[in-house]
Amino acid sequence: MPLPSPTTRAIAALSLTQLIGWGSTFWLPAVTGPAMAAELGMGLPLVMAGPTAMLIVMALVSWPLGAVFERHGARPVMVLGSLLGALGLALVGLAQGPVSYLLAWTVLGLAGAGMLSTPAQIAVTEIAGDKARRALGVLILAGGLTSTLFWPLTGLLQAQWGWRVATLAFAALVLLVCLPLHWAMLARRPRGQAMAHAAAEPVAIDRPRFVLLATTFAANGFVTWGFALTIIILFEAAGLSHASALAAASFIGIAQWAGRLFDFLGGGRWSGFALGLAASALFPLSFIVLLWAESFTGALLFALVYGMAGGVIAVSRATLPLQVFPAAAYARASARLAMPLNLSFAVAPPAFAALLTGAGPHAALWLAFGISLVALGALVGLWRLQRHALH
Fold first, then answer.
1. Per-residue pLDDT of the chain (391 residues; tens, 9 = 90+)
2. Residues of the chain with CATH 1.20.1250.20
3. Half-sphere exposure of residue 255, counting CA atoms within 13 Å on the CB side?
4. Who has the most CB within 10 Å: 37, 46, 123, 350?
């Protein structure tokens, strides 16, 4: 029986490390937050500010890391990121109050910039070469299962031994699983790295294309991360019972994973632009559906359209830079794109929560609708630039 190829081994390893990395860090307080707040003497909003701090640090560090990825490849950065991830989780597990708690999440932000999403996508392109798009689809498909797998696991560990032991167990998992896999399975000499070293100047990143792509990614990211807070309330405002609202909202996650699967099963038959444009158009359409929805069926239709769009956009964020920028600039472009994207992820939940409290659920819906149109417009502008360049 032949051994799996290096690309297959790397994708399998990264799929596992991304599940562990995101599940043990960003998604942790969704389960352990109330227990953390009670023991540390902190309000729940301050506990939930930990992941926000993590995303802000990731955003600030991502841009300067672009040159490091380009010069040294993803492997050493992800190894160091794993080490920082284990340290940050250990600090969370040992925290005694707000200062030490938020300091731990700052360390996790440094770790995330080195080992989560963007570095993993760069690592895939380094080893997969011209098959990178399909390889990225596999990686992102696996990532869609993070909360489904890690929330029950975290709940089980917390019920048995408490949140501190659960967090320390995850620290050990990052150290003993993620770090060795990043060391052993990733490319030691990424394809094209020698040519990049030989070049007198790094490959240029076209500024108008970068701005348009960053705008569409950040705008859609703001909608998908911020709007999720208001889903259940909006369903209830449309006349659904709490139980029906919960059932419809839970369907969004299934639809998102189906969107990722749809792109993967397409096998590259559709261009990244075609899928990205279709998904970006589905977002405002989904909000129109929700504006008119007055039944459980209407809410389910919204969840299907919105969730499918979110799933496809998750893939587009990884694959579109392959079409827009030269291959030699992918690592640097992706690292720079992570800055506005992570900032939008960080800002969206508190912004939507404030709007929901101050102006009501429908104001949040109209904000999401408007921002989704901005994202669609930016992507249409980028597509027109690309078409003009090809003719």
1. 455 788 889 999 999 999 999 999 999 998 999 999 999 999 988 998 999 999 999 999 999 999 899 889 999 999 999 999 999 999 999 999 999 999 999 999 999 999 999 999 999 999 987 788 888 888 988 888 888 789 899 999 999 999 999 999 999 999 999 999 999 999 886 655 544 444 446 788 899 999 999 999 999 999 888 776 677 777 887 788 888 888 888 788 888 888 888 877 765 677 778 889 999 999 999 988 887 877 888 889 998 999 999 999 988 888 899 889 988 889 999 999 999 999 999 998 888 878 877 888 788 888 889 999 999 999 999 999 988 876 6
2. 6-198, 207-390
3. 22
4. 123
pTM of the model: 0.88
Q: Domain 6-198 has what CATH class?
A: mainly alpha
For residue 81, give the 3-state DSSP assignment: helix
For residues 111 and 80, the answer to whether their CB atoms sit within 8 Å is no
Which homologous superfamily is 207-390 in?
Answer: MFS general substrate transporter like domains (1.20.1250.20)
38 Cβ contact list (under 8 Å, min separation 6): none
Based on the number of CB atoms within 10 Å of its own CB, is 51 exposed (0-12), middle (13-18) or buried (19 or more)? buried
In whole angstroms, what separates CA 356 from the centre of its chain?
24
